[in-house]
Amino acid sequence: MQKANGWSKLLLFSSIIAVMLLAACGSEEKEEGNAEGDSGETNYGEEIDYTITGIEPGAGITVATEKAIEEYDSLSGWELEQSSTAAMVTELEEAIASESPIIVTGWNPHWKFAKFDNLKYLEDPKGIYGDVEVIKSLARKGLEKDKPNAYKLIDQFEWSVEDMEGIMYEASESGKEVAEVAKQWVKANPDKVEAWTEGVEDVDGVEFELVSTPWDSERASANVVAEVMRQKGFEVTITPVDVAVMFEAVANGDGDATLAAWMPATHKDFYEKFEDDFEDLGANLEGAKIGLVVPDYMDIDSIEDIQAK
Question: Taking every annotated instance into account, which residue ranges of this chain make up the domain ABC-type glycine betaine transport system substrate-binding (predicted)?
Answer without folding.
Answer: 47-187, 210-308
